[in-house]
Design brief:
This protein is α+β, with helices and mostly antiparallel strands and 424 residues long. The protein has 13 helices and 22 strands. It folds into 4 domains: 92 residues, Rossmann fold, CATH 3.40.50; 68 residues, Dna Ligase, domain 1; 128 residues, ATP-grasp fold, B domain (D-amino Acid Aminotransferase, Chain A, domain 1, 2-Layer Sandwich), CATH 3.30.470; 96 residues, Glycinamide Ribonucleotide Synthetase, Chain A, domain 4. Helix content is 30%, strand content 26%. The strands form 6 sheets. The protein has a 5-stranded parallel β-sheet. Strand 1, helix 1 and strand 2 form a beta-alpha-beta unit. The model has no long low-confidence stretch (mean pLDDT 95). The structure holds adenosine monophosphate (AMP) and glycine. Adenosine monophosphate binds next to strand 9 and strand 17.
């Protein structure tokens, strides 16, 4: 088989790494990919938003399977386009991807199907949204409706902050079109977890649970980022919580989508708050989480390509996913200044010391270069990921590897997986 992976981050490197282990696969392309991905796939210089060009490439090269990493091409309708042209693709259609593309759409589906989530209201004008605040308790959660690269959620301690956030979104349009509507939510207390599952629209195959670390600094301080590290499994997702996610969230979600005539095939990501009264939905994504994908791919024993094909063909009930018992931990190394503006082009040193690393992999997220000489080219630069016999060992191993790598201004969190360590 020839496989094309769309995207350029650590998630796509992990997908390419896992797909390259499939006995079915002869050749992998990645568009546009990055320096590290270039070691195992042929890079194609087409951006993920250039969906017509990607379809032309897949048709010309007779690609057997295209796997979409990021959300943007999904919300632009890459899957609809590929299917129209008779090309096989993994990722939900445009209408289904609205679960991620519009928070208001996602919240309506949650409400219609009585799925546990924070209570909320949606507005498109500042005056009525501020009036609504008056009757709600603090703190307030103010969200831009559309895609905002993980930055469109503002947690506000008091009404003054919340009103400023509403003005930023609806009046000052800091998030552009993504801010045509604002969603105001109840603040939920608990521990966050990420839960992903494959679905073909009928059947659900759960993937291993995980936990992201969204804030930039240790102790969950500082602004939100795309994700500073992740581990799998997440002990907060106990067998009981797992069952409740399937019964109270994913089952009703699929039934609700079907009722609306929306067919969802692909991976569904549920961002959860595990509260005292059970798991509640914070958000949906229509793709693999990044960095959660990295530890999850490292723990997956089964052939990923067979699972993706079963998803596309409506045969998920015929396959199962086997997992390494060992936990995996991913620490994201970032450029100075991230998640704000950052410099590119810094030389990365020490990667050669990890080339024969047995217990882990260094997934590239924002690098250029080849033959062992890599420069930084993004905010999140590398995702160092290790397996360990237990969570302590995995944490020790991952930070040992991180200690081998350096560049000017590199920063990372030193407390990845702390919650899992505390529970162990
Ligand atoms: P989202 O992109 O909707 O997942 O929000 C980003 C982050 O904001 C989440 O990972 C949570 O840490 C936080 N957050 C979002 N919604 C809520 C909520 N209703 N209550 C508490 N925290 C929230
Ligand atoms: N790590 C969270 C996300 O991928 O949206």
């Amino acid at each position: 088989m020839k496989v094309l992976v769309v995207g350029s981050g650590g998630r796509e490197h992990a997908l390419v790494w896992k797909i390259s282990q499939s006995p079915k696969v002869k050749k992998i392309y990645c568009a546009p990919g990055n320096g590290g991905i270039g070691k195992m796939a042929e890079l194609v210089s087409v951006g993920p938003e250039e969906i017509e060009k990607l379809a032309d490439f897949a048709a010309r090269e007779k690609i057997d399977l295209t796997v979409v990493g990021p959300e943007l091409p999904l919300t632009l309708g890459i899957s609809d386009l590929f299917k129209k042209r008779g090309l096989k693709i993994f990722g939900p259609d445009r209408e289904a991807a609205r679960l991620e593309g519009s928070k208001a759409f996602a919240k309506d589906i949650l409400k219609e199907n009585h799925i546990p989530t924070a209570s909320f209201a949606t507005f498109s004008d500042a005056t009525s949204s501020k009036k609504y605040l008056a009757d709600q308790p603090s703190p307030y959660v103010v969200k831009a409706d559309g895609l905002a690269a993980g930055k469109g959620v503002i947690i506000c301690a008091d009404r003054k902050e919340a009103e400023a956030a509403i003005d930023d979104i609806l009046v000052r349009r800091l998030f552009g079109q993504a801010g045509e509507k604002v969603v105001i939510e109840e603040f939920l207390q608990g521990e966050e977890a990420s839960f992903m599952a494959l679905t073909d629209g009928e059947h659900i195959l759960s993937l291993a649970s995980s936990q992201d670390h969204k804030r930039v600094f240790d102790g969950d301080r500082g602004p939100n980022t795309g994700g500073m590290g992740a581990y799998s499994p997440a002990p907060v997702v106990t067998p009981e919580v797992h069952c409740r996610i399937l019964d109270e969230i994913l089952g009703p979600l699929l039934a609700g989508l079907k009722k609306k005539g929306v067919h969802y095939a692909g991976v569904i990501y549920v961002g959860l708050m595990v509260t005292d009264s059970g798991p509640k939905v914070l958000e949906f994504n229509a793709r693999f989480g990044d960095p959660e994908c990295q530890p999850i791919m490292m723990r997956l024993k089964s052939d990923l390509v067979s699972l993706l094909e079963a998803t596309i063909e409506g045969k998920l009930h015929q396959v199962k996913a086997d997992w390494h018992q060992d936990p995996a931990v991913c620490v994201v190394l970032c450029a100075q200044g991230y998640p704000g503006s950052y410099e590119k082009g810094k030389e990365i040193r020490g990667l050669e010391k990890l080339e024969c690393w047995q217990r882990g992999s260094v997934f590239h997220a924002g690098t250029t270069g080849k033959q062992g000489h890599f420069l930084t080219s993004g905010g999140r630069v590398l995702g160092v990921t290790a397996l360990g016999g237990n969570i302590q060992e995995a944490v020790r191993e991952v930070y040992r590897a991180v200690g081998e790598i350096e560049w000017e201004g590199m920063h990372y969190r030193k407390d990845i997986a702390e919650r899992a360590l505390k529970r162990s």
